[in-house]
User: Fold this.
Amino acid sequence: MASITSDVETREGKVAVRKIVPSLSFKDRAEEAVNFYVSVFKNSRIVSIDRWPANAPIPEGKVLNATFELNGREYRAFDGGEHFTFTDAFSLVAICETQRELDEVWGKLASGGGQEGPCGWVTDRFGVSWQVIPAALEEIMANPKGGNSKAVMDALLQMGKLDLKTLEAAYKKR
Assistant:
């Protein structure tokens, strides 16, 4: 096995790593959250769950490491104890193709005690912040010459859950 410190390759001062994976640190409900997330999104699964042993700083049986995939992308999660909380400074973005898809994702994430927020944001029952947006929004905002991006932003700022037809109508205003 190669030494971690002596075999680090750099190219132009950059370090090569195998991969970078987002990790969600829960107080104590990681397994429940992971099961919920993989139930919401297609092409999602739990890869593995390792548990805290006896005499550890976290109660025995809680999640030491969960590896899971959402829409084919790998994530990690664990139960870390009381000092772990989530903020809106980090969010997951669910980009939806249709209004129906957006409505379904929004409804599931807000269910069971989640909180609907402004401008397409929702905080799920575990405290994780999500932005649920239509794919068309990225296209609209990236092309201000094709329409009225300011009117789109003005409309978006008045919404909770985003409404694609309203955003598209705002874009067409001249």
User: Anything to note?
Assistant: Residues 91-172 form a domain with the 2,3-Dihydroxybiphenyl 1,2-Dioxygenase; domain 1 fold (CATH 3.10.180.10). The chain has two domains: 23-79, 91-172.
